[in-house]
Design a protein that fits this description.
binds fe (ii) ion, about 0% strand, mainly alpha, about 180 residues
Length: about 180
């Protein structure tokens, strides 16, 4: 039975691709913001490697959108500016704060992809495969950032809690708008 406010399976999948595309775009912009500030620092090659993986994630969802004629979220301009600003501002607070930002964002993305893995169960093997692979990459980014001493960032708990909330809000909005 379909209730008002329920979505067809196809619409559900479209929304998943849309929010994932937005998230990967945001991630890529965060790392770009970090590199704009920290591009010559010791952590730069590590950030560059993560940024390359985000580009691969983004390309995968972009291609899926084109193939399935899924529109991007209308909030792309916001993620363009907001992602870069979040990356640059945390980087200005220092390498460890930049890494704390990565820990916060990736912990939310990990949860987000874990939920999708369950929702997708046996369906949509291409999408599910991407989600599983990217989730492993995000987990690696999370752990890399922790190893870089993210937890020693000033105001670590306040900073990460604020970024976790922002990221969750961005996911919520990108699924709907
Ligand atoms: Fe990613
Ligand atoms: Fe990531």
């Amino acid at each position: 039975m379909t209730l008002p406010g329920d979505f067809s399976q196809a619409e559900k999948i479209n929304r998943m691709i849309r929010v994932n595309h937005a998230g990967e775009y945001g991630a890529q912009r965060i790392y770009a913001g970090q590199l704009a500030v920290l591009g010559k620092r010791e952590c730069a090659p590590t950030i560059e490697r993560m940024a390359e993986q985000e580009q691969e994630h983004l390309d995968t969802f972009s291609n899926m959108m084109i193939a399935r004629k899924v529109r991007p979220t209308a909030l792309m301009p916001l993620w363009h500016v907001g992602g870069f600003a979040l990356g640059a501002v945390t980087a200005l607070m220092g390498e460890k704060a930049a890494m704390a930002c990565t820990v916060a964002v990736e912990s939310v993305i990990d949860e987000h992809y874990a939920k999708q893995e369950i929702e997708l169960a046996g369906d949509e093997s291409e999408l599910k495969h991407a989600v599983t692979k990217f989730r492993a990459d995000e987990k690696e980014h999370h752990d890399t950032a922790l190893n870089f001493g993210a937890e020693q960032a000033p105001f670590y708990h306040i900073l990460t809690s604020a970024i976790v909330l922002q990221t969750k809000l961005a996911i919520w909005l990108s699924t709907r708008i």
